[in-house]
Amino acid sequence: MTDLLPLNPDELLTTTRTVRKRLDLERPVPVEVVREALEVALQAPSGSNKQKWHWLIVTDPELKKKVADYYAASHAAYTGPVDPAADPARARIVSSSKHLAQVMGDVPVLVIGAIEIDENELPAGNQAGLWGSLLPAAWSLSLALRARGLGTAWTTLHLQYEREVAEVLGIPGNVRQGVLLPVAYTKGTDFKPAPRNDLDSVVHLNGW
């Protein structure tokens, strides 16, 4: 088993950050480390315990480049100019996001979390039950990787080109993608909790 960072549960939960500029693009990531983290992640809940999730681990340089090209195209359409003086926090995020779009194809491993659906089209109405059977495991994967000294960035921008990416990777029509996680060792492991809204501004006791 891979050595784990000395983090207690609260430290792990509060310091698992979106990592972009601090992804180490030069250090190889053994597939076995990703598989080990996935073994942990698959303890996450799944509706009716059906476990219809699928995990695509992409390491082939040509396949990564094709996925990265679609990601970059979606990113270019998604992001707009931002004034650093007016909104420095947003400017930092945009800069970091742009960096990831530029290097996505160089990240050692790309992991796509996907899930089987009953029909070739997503269900109408509220889809919480469907995605609630995939995304908790994807977040558990991020946590398990962080515990092993690796970083991820939760992103869904590639889904603008979901069908094209599915064709590249041979994903069947009844399997839909939910998240893309670029995975690499991090440059340092000293991540800290991020600013968040005051708890009382988002908690509602016994009603809104």
Describe this structure in a few short sentences.
The protein has 208 residues and is α+β, with helices and mostly antiparallel strands. It has 7 helices and 4 strands.
Notes on the protein architecture:
The protein is 37% helix and 13% strand. It is built from seven helices and four strands. It has helices spanning 9-15, 31-41, 61-78, 88-103, 128-131, 135-147, 162-169, and strands at residues 53-58, 109-116, 150-151, 175-185. The radius of gyration is 18 Å and the shape is globular. This is Nitroreductase family protein. Keywords: Oxidoreductase. Pfam families: Nitroreductase (PF00881).
Main attributes of the structure:
oxidoreductase; alpha+beta; globular; 7 helices; Nitroreductase-like; 4-stranded antiparallel sheet
- What's the alpha carbon Rg, rounded to whole Å? 18 Å
- Number of beta strands: 4
Question: In terms of structural class, how would the helical and strand content be classed?
Answer: alpha+beta
Task: Encode the helix/strand succession as letters.
Answer: HHEHHEHHEHE
- Major β-sheet profile: 4 strands, antiparallel
